Amino acid sequence: MKYRYLSFLIFASCTSVPDSSVQLFDTSSSTPVLVGQGVISTAEYHEAISYLDEENRALFFTRSDQQFDSSNIYVSYYEQGKWGSPLKLPFSDSGYDAGFSLSPGGDLAFFTSKRAPKVHGLSEEWNIWKVSVNENDDWGEPEVLEAPLNSEGLECCLTMNRKGLTFFSSNRAGSWDIYTAQFEDGQFKNIRLVEGLINSDEGEWPAFVNKAGDLLLLSSIRKSGIGGDDIYFSRKVGDSWSEPELMEGPINTTSYEDSPILTSDNKFLLYSSWRDNVTSNGRSNIYSIPFKGKD
After folding, report:
1. Could you write out the DSSP letters of every residue in 172-206?
2. Rounded to two decimals, what is the model's pTM?
3. Where are the domains of the chain?
4. 209 CA to centre of own chain
5. Fewer CB atoms inside 10 A, N or C side of the chain?
6. 6-43 in b/e burial notation, b at 16+ Cβ within 10 A?
7. Which residues pair with 61 in a beta bridge?
């Protein structure tokens, strides 16, 4: 991705910019490790990861208060061998914003918000929005995505890969299910429910699709899990997506895990968890663990 913020110019001249994710995350641990302890992952707030740019320089995440009454989107830059103090994105000034994904060209960002859409036929609560950003680090005004991507139901969790293959979650049909679309020429086309075994009556939320478009990471509260939300993966074989499989090892717990993404080199899984640790104080933090699967 050609990073389009002013901060890209800063990083381009920084000799400590990592060439690989192994310089950012702990490779020695077989258990999940906190990301940016005390800086990104804190005891005061809930944090959930949304996006890591392909150069491993910018980590976008959601930070919410203890009761989830307010939520905003932040970015932390990796500089001088560590993650810097998070900066709230300038457009994220409403009471509740969450999630973050970039278009293939990097000039549009998508996020979920509870701000009033002022568009007939859309939910007044959860909708997916877009906002433009240019090479001068100027952000536009957020615009709600109109139907049929948004609906009278609730929508959230839009993610897309470099080819514009898009997934999001909606409860327009009753339960939270995963839908897909293709983003081309600034428009979402062929919006439809993902058919097959990937959806259930319990609820599914997409978080990451790989470059090839044949691996989807998601969270679900289906009964095959071991906690509240658990992290699953599904693979595309031919035209069909497989039934989601629970991530093995120490990734899932009896608490809540969600928002899984992979680093661009597929060496690390990053995700959010409510597991207890010295920092969490019973809140969601961001973790990394070496990824042993195949992209």
Report:
1. TTSS-EEEEEEEETTEEEEEEEPPBSS--SS-EEE
2. 0.91
3. 6-290
4. 10
5. C
6. ebbeebeeeeebeeebeebbeeeeeebbbbbbeebbbe
7. 49, 74
Work out the average pLDDT over 115-142: 92
pLDDT band (50, 70, 90) for residue 280: low
Interatomic CA distance for residues 55 and 178, integer angstroms: 28
| Length of the chain counted residue by residue | 295
CATH fold of 6-290? Neuraminidase (2.120.10)
Main-chain phi, psi angles of 23, to 5 degrees = -85, -15
Between CA 286 and CA 261 the distance in angstroms is 11
213-255 tens-digit pLDDT:
999 999 999 988 998 899 999 999 988 999 999 998 799 999 9
d(Cα 158, Cα 130) in Å, to the nearest integer?
A: 11
The helix, strand and coil proportions of the chain, stated in percent and rounded to the nearest 5, come to 5, 40, 55
Chain centroid offset of residue 81 CA: 24
Confidence of residue 23 (pLDDT cuts 50, 70, 90): low
